[in-house]
């Protein structure tokens, strides 16, 4: 959250820490108006009690501008909210809550604890695991249902589809259940020769249900329309589409059981708040540990004990290497040849952004113009906001590092992260507010199908 603090805000951090830090000793309402501030800084008795009972709370931030929204969602992936309605919901610890409130003073934000969502989040961590369906979200397939669908596609279209393991999840490596990590590869095998590849990874963050379902429907659409639709037929004749439908199956299973779960299921390091595990999207070995992640094993953005320490990350890195032979030189500034084929897209939910590398610096990435051009093209089709992750943040601010897109961009000039969500759901009052909007996928899907298919021309 340091990226939001400037000089005046920095001077207020101590004030906020003193006010909120005194919660356990002085559970009485405290109010102050900082010099030059635009609002009051309040730590109420209710907030103090909430932090005593919940190390992680759901905070609601009402912001003012689209830039505010971009700055927030690039640091914290919201668990809900609406750009149109001007608010986001974030699950944050006390330190982040304090900093958000301080930053809010200079940016005109209102930062509050959402008691109802906090209670829901806390209760979700106590749910028993092992559910075989997603309660309340029947339109999203479970890990097992996703895998069964993919197996069936491979059986139904043996000349167009294959479904294979490329490694094991953390739990499986420990002999504690878990899953294979599988990739669904689509292409017309009758047309031989080297073909460019589109690789899509989905739902690396466990509670983001939508990406896995979108990727599965993309596969079903391509296979059902081969031989019927000229674009689809051309695409599978001349290219390969690799889909990792469930990039974090262990964590996903915890989320499907009702937990608001983001990380993998690595419980090597115990956490009093129950939020163990590593954030796989902060664990990739490029620029690991240089900012935008946490060293606290109980934090939602915990980067892991080392670069690519998690088996899921190692598996994905190996798969990406397999998909895209390295075409760049060793230097960070080395560009890939313009003729380098291939596109990599990592799908998240929810922010309505199309992002491209770099994520850890404001420096334009090699092949930056081409990345921007294709990112804008994708955004044209799905109506999202195109941006490099660092485009709307202060120049000296820390960035988010060791993510999938930046890692993959070391190998190919075309890598994106596209946080997805509903943009025209039938029930906006609900569907626009949650990471897992109920049954919005039929509404989201057509826009993404067109957008992803547009990547074929890259
Ligand atoms: Zn995510």
**Helicity, in percent?**
25-40%
Structural class category: alpha/beta
Q: Ions, cofactors, ligands: which are bound? A: zinc ion
Rg over C-alpha atoms, rounded to the nearest angstrom: 22 Å
- The fold-level CATH name of the largest domain is Aminopeptidase
Please tell me the overall pLDDT: 78
Architecture overview:
Strand 1 and strand 2 form a beta hairpin. With 458 residues, this protein is α/β, with parallel strands linked by helices. The N terminus is likely disordered. The chain is globular, with a radius of gyration of 22 Å. The strands form 4 sheets. Strands 7-8-10-9-11-14 form a 6-stranded mixed beta sheet. Strands 4-5-3-6 form a 4-stranded antiparallel beta sheet, with helices on both faces. Strands 1-2 form a two-stranded antiparallel sheet. It has 2 domains: 123 residues, no CATH class; 315 residues, 3-Layer(aba) Sandwich (Aminopeptidase), CATH 3.40.630. It starts with 6 loop residues before the first helix and ends with a helix. The protein is built from 15 helices and 14 strands. The structure holds zinc ion (ZN). Zinc ion binds next to loops.
């Amino acid at each position: 959250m340091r990226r939001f603090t400037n000089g005046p805000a920095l001077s207020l951090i101590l004030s906020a820490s003193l006010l909120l830090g005194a919660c356990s000793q002085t559970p009485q309402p405290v109010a102050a108006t900082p010099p030059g501030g635009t609002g009051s800084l309040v730590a109420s008795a209710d907030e103090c009690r909430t932090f005593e009972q919940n190390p992680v709370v759901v905070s609601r931030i009402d912001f003012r501008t689209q830039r505010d929204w971009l700055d927030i969602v690039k640091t914290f992936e919201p668990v809900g909210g609406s750009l149109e309605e001007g608010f986001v919901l974030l699950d944050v610890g006390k330190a982040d809550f304090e900093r958000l409130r301080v930053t809010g003073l200079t940016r005109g934000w209102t930062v509050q604890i959402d008691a109802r969502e906090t209670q829901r989040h806390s209760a979700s961590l106590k749910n028993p695991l092992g559910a075989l369906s997603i309660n309340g979200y029947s339109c999203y397939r479970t890990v097992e249902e996703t895998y069964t669908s993919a197996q069936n596609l491979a059986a139904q279209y043996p000349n167009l589809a294959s479904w294979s393991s490329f490694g094991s999840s953390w739990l499986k490596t420990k002999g504690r259940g878990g899953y294979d990590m599988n990739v669904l590869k689509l292409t017309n095998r009758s047309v031989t020769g080297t073909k460019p590849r589109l690789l899509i990874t989905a739902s690396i963050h466990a509670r983001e249900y939508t990406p896995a379902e979108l990727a599965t429907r993309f596969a079903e659409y391509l296979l059902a329309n081969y031989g019927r639709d000229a674009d689809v037929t051309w695409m599978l004749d001349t290219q390969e589409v690799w889909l990792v439908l469930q990039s974090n199956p262990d964590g996903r299973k915890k989320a499907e059981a009702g937990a608001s779960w983001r990380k993998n299921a690595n419980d090597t390091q115990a956490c009093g708040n129950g939020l163990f595990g590593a954030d796989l999207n902060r664990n990739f070995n490029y620029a690991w540990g240089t900012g935008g992640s946490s060293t606290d094993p109980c934090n939602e953005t915990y980067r892991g004990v080392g670069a690519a320490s998690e088996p899921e990350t190692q598996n994905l890195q190996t798969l990406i290497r397999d998909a895209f032979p390295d075409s760049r030189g060793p230097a960070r500034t080395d560009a890939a040849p313009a003729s380098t084929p291939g596109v990599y897209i990592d799908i998240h939910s929810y922010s309505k952004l199309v992002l491209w590398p770099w994520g850890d610096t404001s420096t334009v990435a090699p092949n930056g113009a081409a990345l921007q051009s294709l990112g804008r093209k994708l955004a044209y089709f799905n109506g999202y906001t195109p941006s490099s992750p660092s485009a709307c943040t202060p120049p000296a601010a820390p960035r988010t590092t060791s993510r999938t897109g930046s890692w993959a961009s070391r190998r190919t000039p075309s890598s994106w992260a596209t946080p997805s969500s509903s943009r025209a759901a039938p029930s906006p009052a609900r569907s626009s507010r949650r990471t897992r909007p109920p049954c919005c996928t039929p509404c989201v899907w057509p826009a993404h199908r067109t957008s992803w298919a547009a990547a074929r021309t890259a």
